[in-house]
Amino acid sequence: MRKLTLPKNPYKGIKIYCKKCKVDTPKCNHFESFTYKVRVHVPGTKKSVKSKILNATVYRDAITEAINFEKHLKSNNYETILIDTGKENDYSVIDSVIKYNHYLNGESEYAQFRKNITDSHHKELIRFCKYFVKTLKKNKNIEVTRIKDVNKQDVSNFYSWADNHYSPKTFNKCLNGIKSFFDFLIDVEEIEMKNPFRKYSRKQIPKSNIDSVTKDEFIAILEAVDKFSSIVILGGKGERKNMYQPYLKAGFRLFLLTGGRREEVVDLRWSDILVSPSEVKFFRIQNLKVQRNLSRDEVYKYIPINSDLFDLLVELGYNEKKHTDSYILFPERKVKSKTIMDSLSKAFTHYKNGAGIEKDISLKSLRKTYITWVHQVMQKETGVLTSHSTVKVLESYYIDPQILSLVEKGATEIKIFGADSGSRHIVVGKY
Q1: Dihedral Cα 304, 306, 309, 314, nearest 10 deg
Q2: Are strands 23-24 and 14-18 parallel, antiparallel or unpaired?
Q3: Residue 167 Cα to chain centre, angstroms
Q4: pLDDT per position as a tens digit, 281-296
Q5: Homologous superfamily (CATH) for 215-425
Q6: At CA 158, angle to CA 152 and CA 159, rounded to 5?
């Protein structure tokens, strides 16, 4: 999708709005989320405005739509826009959360507003809303109080609650989640109100101490899988849990040598391997994160199969399974992928501690390690292989000779832990 622009002297009130960032005149690169929006000042008031997200994708059409919107407002004496039932879009606090839940669940009556987010993100946003409602409930009847009657004191009460319950990072995420809830009510449900969470003081997030993994640390973790006790005694009733799984070491190596996200690595299949005209092998997998952000399918990412990774694939059965649709990791699985992801994450931390490593690293640190070494070779093109590229780059490169050449370069030149390393140098025990 091309980037929306405005002329030097745009029609009064027309803005470019980012539906992802929820801001006018955005400075982000979420071009696929840009739309035209008009804000009309209500005569006789100081700051009151009526706004509407426009359907037009061409500037001239946006002007026409904006003019019709102004005419509609004037004909209704600038009263709240009416929905088909003839009733004002105005809900109680509890009904507002129910509406938002339906919206996040993809049940909006308007196709252009249907959301496509992960189940975990959906649950998180609704959880924040429930906490907000819980603080309101101390002073108000949430079944009859109108959502538009939420005031600064209510915001202050919730701000104090969140400040006492969350770390700075989660605090910011929570407050932004409630801001998005009110943005939905204003922009989608068209409730005439100001967002009470539009302005608040964000918390300063301390610089993360999470580091990449060194070669010696990674070898120590693999060795700990064989040598360190796999039994963990949980708190409470003293329940014992076995952290060992036969796929752990192969899984850790697969994470390190592909740099993939959890769901990508665990669900890799042999059929995801493609071969370029020059006989260079690479994975082509669905870019789930970008697909969710764009609400569309058929967006891919590419992982070069260098010599390190190929050695591991041969160990795991490449010659026998290369044309099958079996999973590469733990093909005989009878559990959900999420169970395997969680098992790998918890086991990595367990055996990291067992190896006596005090540094704050986790399974996701292997992705950072991969990116660090990929950058040594790819430099400014690193984002194309690690899925940090802008959507514009991903769309431009799709699967043309340019990205293919980058994949081939990565397959022949990338070495995790440097030129002297290789998977054969970090093989420890059986997999």
Answers
A1: 110
A2: antiparallel
A3: 20
A4: 888 888 766 556 555 5
A5: Intergrase catalytic core (1.10.443.10)
A6: 85
d(CA 300, CA 287): 5
pTM flag (> 0.70): no
Q: Give the list of residues 6+ apart from residue 43 with CB closer than 8 angstroms, or none.
A: 78
Question: Helix, strand, or coil here: 381?
Answer: helix
Quote the crossing angle between the two packed helices 401-413 and 365-378, to the nearest 10°. 110
pLDDT for residue 207? 65
CB 33 within 8 A of CB 20: yes
- In terms of phi and psi (left: phi > 0; alpha: psi -120 to 50; beta: otherwise), the region of 22 is left
Interhelix angle for 119-136 vs 168-187, to 10°?
A: 90
Question: Helical H runs in 8-118?
Answer: 59-75, 93-104
pLDDT at 428: 45
pLDDT, residue 396, reads 38
Q: Which helix (H) or strand (E) holds 137?
A: none
- The CA distance from 191 to 188, in Å, is 8
Domain positions in the chain are: 14-75, 93-187, 215-425
DSSP class of residue 188? T
